[in-house]
TrEMBL record:
This is Alpha/beta fold hydrolase. Keywords: Hydrolase. It comes from Streptomyces pratisoli.
Length: 267
């Protein structure tokens, strides 16, 4: 699998190894995974869209084949890593999509370098800052992952990540969660607890957006997606039936149809 060495001063050591897939040609489509997953969660989209687009799916720092950096990884760290990787690949402007934490990273990217983003895909995510209760919960979970590893957490959240009736996707997601490095996942949790509020940012997004959500998503329910859709100046909302938090894996044909229609509109 390809990887790149990028400058990442926030790590305290250089360079940072970033694993990624880069397939196809044409307009660039960059897809950012959520927590605690890796780039393989986008396998159905990599296969479907590399015929028409240059699809890049990176492993975030702390996940997959990328460097594991303990401590705290802020969303801004993820965003600057992505910018450096895309510079390395010679990609200046791109459609950026992300699911869950990946969607929040996409919002942070738009905050930091909106001129590079041709379109924004926000899947099963939400823009609000963390509450005090949520901040304490994320930090406590980070402590637990470091003490116990990923097994207990993965077992507990499996049926919320993927609807239990989507058996094959559930098995795939469970394997990804078990494979996540606890130090990387904990650092992301601590950083995500400190994220800013992106609700005002969304009202000024100057590119077309696609908002996607699984009908049965308990983490980021349809109401959250509807609120983002209402805030964005130019957006399309697609609710995927028969899916929970991972509609791109649970119902890839339906998810891909929504993404394809959006990309055709952009092109």
């Amino acid at each position: 699998m390809p990887s790149a060495l990028i400058d990442a001063p926030a790590t305290g050591h250089e360079p940072l190894v970033v694993g990624y897939e880069d397939k196809g040609s044409g307009p660039a489509l960059v897809l950012v995974h959520g927590h605690p997953f890796d780039r393989t969660m986008w396998a159905p989209q990599l296969a479907a869209f590399s015929a028409t687009h240059r699809v890049v799916t990176p492993d975030l720092r702390g996940y997959g084949t990328s460097s594991v950096v303990p401590g705290v990884t802020l969303l801004g760290d993820f965003a600057t890593d992505l910018a450096a990787l895309l510079d390395h690949l010679g990609i200046r402007r791109f459609v950026l999509g992300g699911l869950s934490m990946g969607g929040q990273i996409a919002m942070e990217c738009y905050r930091l370098f909106p001129e590079r983003i041709a379109g924004l895909v926000l899947a099963d995510t939400f823009p609000a800052a963390e509450t005090d209760e949520g901040r304490a919960r994320r930090n406590a979970m980070a402590d637990r992952l470091l003490a116990e590893g990923m097994r207990g957490y993965a077992d507990e959240v499996r049926d919320r990540m993927v609807a239990p009736y989507n058996t094959a996707a559930s098995e795939t997601v469970h394997r990804m969660m078990l494979a996540a490095p606890p130090e990387g996942a904990a650092a992301a949790l601590r950083g995500r607890a400190e994220r800013p509020d992106y609700r005002a940012l969304l009202t000024g997004v100057a590119v077309p957006a696609l908002v996607v959500v699984g009908r049965d998503d308990a983490y980021t329910p349809v109401a959250d997606a509807e609120a983002m859709h209402a805030a964005l100046p130019d957006s399309t909302l697609r609710v995927i039936e028969g899916a929970a938090h991972m509609p791109n894996l649970e119902r890839p044909e339906e998810f891909n149809a929504a993404l394809r229609a959006y990309l055709e509109r952009l092109n």
